[in-house]
Amino acid sequence: MAIAQVDTAVTGNSVLDSAMVVASSRKFESLGNIYTYTVEKSASIVSVAGEPDVVRQLASLPGVSMGLEGSLGLFIRGGNSSNCRILIDDVPIYNASHAFGLMSSIQPESISSSCIYTGGFKSSFGNYTSGIVRAARKSSMADKFGVNLTLSPYMEGVYFEAPIKIVTVRLGARYSTAPLIAEYVLNNYKDRIQVLEKCSDNYRFSGEIYDVNGGISVRLSSRTIVDASGLYSRDKLFTSDAGFYVNTGWRTWMWKFGSSSVLGDSKLSANVYTTGYDTYMLQETFYTDGRCASRVKINAGIKELCVTANYSRVLADRIKFDSGMDVKWLWQTPNISFFADAETRLGNNIDISIGLRPTFHLEKGNRRANLDVHLLSDLKLKEWLGVEFALDRTNQYFHTLEGLPTSYPMNLTVPLTQKFPEETTNQIYAGLFFARNTPDIGFLGQLDINVNIGAYYKYMSNMVSYISSVNLVKNKSTSWENDVDCGSGQSYGLECSMIVNSARLSANVAYTLSHTDRVFPMINGGERFPFKFDRPHILSLQLDLSAIEHVVGRKNKKASHHVICDMNLCSGSRLTAIVGSYEPSPYPYYWAPSFSPWREPHDLIVKEFYYTRPEMSAMNGVVAPMYFRLDLGYSFRIESSRSSHEITLSVFNVTNRHNPYMIYNEDGVWKQLSIMPILPSIRYKMTLRS
After folding, report:
1. First vs last Cα of the chain: how many Å apart?
2. How confident is the model at residue 232 (pLDDT cuts 50, 70, 90)?
3. What's phi and psi for 416, nearest 5 deg?
4. What is the pLDDT, as a whole number, of residue 4?
């Protein structure tokens, strides 16, 4: 039952991929806090772009609430979206999305497996407070040349690997045609789009989305390898009309160099990496004579440079010990951390893992010391039944001021200050897990069934939030401290999940009953209020059925058919809205419209608020209608010893349900804005091997 981490190791003439593996006696695929996935299983999640996505797999787990429909803005056990960390070979990727979170910037062909943590973390992670998506890229020494080509209406990509004696080279690149499609539609049919119907003939939109990644591994000996890897993604969007011009975009990068050696029962590794992202926005408005009326320019982001060393060893055949240290520079401020994890089995029924991570934040005038603590224990009551307990205390050494609930791109990331110290989370989890194997059930064969039922409580301190929603659009990095407040939050809930696997079926059902709230001294009068994405009920279903497998042609090509189904049903999100208006006491005479020094269009605004005032709901007091979405897909694959061809047809939101993006009250009538209609997609993938 014990979970063991097998990092890149050398055996004979090959290097093993990093992957989450388990002891042979373990029958449980997940125990309530840690979930493992392959890229093939990630393909059973239908996305807006029709692309497999290891990050989007989060949406199918218990305890995870969605943000904007179809986006990668995901909120784990009541935390913020930015509190979740995405790691590629243990390097944090601070923004892993394209197109405001609709697509991932991680090429699925470059990933061998992924592991998702909602609790029971390892001390080697660091600098997060909510969840971890730990993806392992392909890093073994290849023995054959291979190339993958993918084509879809929204993303085209190529990925290849080539062995050259003791060297393996891997390179990948993708380019999205989505901006070209949007450019054609918006520029030629803007009169049919409600939000653009008032634009002039001079309205223009254009954009560019792409990413590249690669790696090189060199086998210096049967026990030592060195490797280097990198990732770079870029989004550019331009919008202009007669009265305005907007230029916005973001980029993400990661570069890593490291080495690892196996010495008997020990392994020693050292790495240096740099990672980060930056975002920019330039917005200009113009008078009718062409003069610039206003100009707003915002730049934000985060940069991290890290040197890390790790030592692991198996002691007395029962204790796996991992330790190390890392030195990170965030905004040129050093963070020094030491970490140690110990895993062992007590008797035949108890597995326990303990981790400690002291961190020293050494900014001049703002020096701090913190301790991350992790405890994960599994008690096997019977061969098929057990109990899991997890305790985690984590700290995050930067803040992200979240605006749109999409993911990272346009949020402002800021360093710690005396007024806004590190975010800290304390979380406890307890639950039951059990597993059963059924007899053969005809077409499906033998079913492996894993069930988890557990409860969690999380307390979050030193969280930041905009005091007013107006600050979401007017904020600048030089004034953020005046526009935000520091507070706390809590989340608690019941999580249930069932995973069913067989030779032909992979299914996952998850349900969460939870509550999440926030409290800030300068927001809502200091009273506690529900979090925007406090969804009391969340139900998700993921299914991948291999319908038919048969041999075709004279070369024994294997054909397979897969049917994919995803369903999401949850409570609506919350928002603060104008629910009515009332007549106030009049302004002093010198603010009256007839005495106003301003003229059109300002005097129209003055007149409106001179006679009426908006009546606001309670903070996040309006609950949007229930959210429901059904996605379907079909995949056909033909595979031989040297090639494979796969066609995937998918439909996002197959019922064309108009789920709410925004709810507002206009003239006493509640109205709803929806942005995600039914979206069909087709994807072709070809793989060639020499």
Report:
1. 39
2. very high
3. -75, 150
4. 35
- Asked whether the beta carbons of 212 and 231 are under 8 A apart, the reply is yes
CA dist 154 and 393 (Å) reads 40
Q: Torsions phi, psi of 562, nearest 5?
A: -125, 135
What tokens were used for 540? Answer: 């998700």
What are the start-end ranges of the H helices in 331-479? Answer: 471-474
Cis peptide before 614 (omega within 30 of 0): no
Report the C-alpha gap between 84 and 394 in whole angstroms.
12
CA 479 to chain CA centroid, Å, is 28
Which residues are CB-contacts of 483 (< 8 A; sequence separation ≥ 6)? 466, 467, 468, 471, 475
Q: How far is CA 300 from the centre of its chain?
A: 19
pLDDT score at 596: 46
Q: Find out whether 315 and 341 touch, Cβ atoms under 8 Å.
A: no
Pairwise CA distance, residues 343 & 314, whole Å: 10
Structural element, H or E, at residue 687? strand 679-689
DSSP E strand stretches across 419-483: 423-437, 448-466
For tokens 């690892």, name the residue: 260
The secondary element (H helix, E strand) that includes residue 611 is helix 602-611
538 has a pLDDT exceeding 80:
yes
Contact 60, 47 (CB under 8 A): no
Structure tokens at 50: 């029709």
Phi, psi of 365 (to 5 degrees): 80, 0
Segments in 165-272 forming alpha helices (H): 178-188
Mean pLDDT of the chain: 83
Higher-confidence residue: 12 or 316? 316
